[in-house]
Amino acid sequence: MVHGLSFDCPDCLKRCTSKGGLSRHRQIHRQFTPASEEEDENSFQRRFHPLLNALPCNADGEYLPPFSPPAPSPAPPANGLDPQTWAPFESRLEFDFAHYHFVELQTSEHQINTALDLWAATVTQFGKTAPWQNAAELYATIDSIQQGDMPWKTYQMRYTGPSPPSTPPRWMTQTYEVCARDLRAVLHHQLGSPDFKDAVDMVPYLQFNHAGHRVWSNLMSGDWAWKQAVSICSAFAGEKLELEEQSLDPLQRLGLKLQNL
After folding, report:
1. What positions belong to coiled-coil segments (predicted)?
2. Which of 65, 81, 219, 233 is the most exposed place for a label (fewest CB within 10 A)?
3. Where are the domains of the chain?
């Protein structure tokens, strides 16, 4: 994109003064090689994204003072008991029963069914029922246990490409179960954890070795993160321009648009 006598890089929004300068600059976005084991990554040169600074801010986008503490945790319940303490079990008794048979004794399915029959026979006289009718229901409850607030999700995957005319290999016809967590939620938790303080690159960067060749070592040194930063900055610039236009009369709006062509 050309702005007057300047030439903007579509990858990082760097403004060059000539077409040749833009061509030379864009080479840094094309030439890259993996870092070799012999090279010391700490000695590489880094060129950080010029528009994103990763300074901490609040939900309204206002910068926080340096070394600001994190937001306080939610207040505990008034009685000191969290109703979700034993979730997905309804009570401590159910949790202890499952832990005792499944973890400590590693009870067989047949023996769990027998124990549940005895439980049901004991509480039936009081008009109640056992929490599970059989071991399969107990296993389903155990499988629904969540660690933290990022549940596991199960996906069914199967090959859908072309098959050979003869008997296809088994992997082409089978359905596979994949268990995974929401990667976006995982990233949010990592960024909010003090364990990762000063251990995460918050700003995309371009990395160069001693020969001046571009190298990459993690997500933030790759093209995807850099282009995402460019996209964010472009969207922000568009919103800012729109707000400026709203405060101008029609003639001033036209002049502002012509200025940004």
Report:
1. none
2. 65
3. 88-145, 147-217
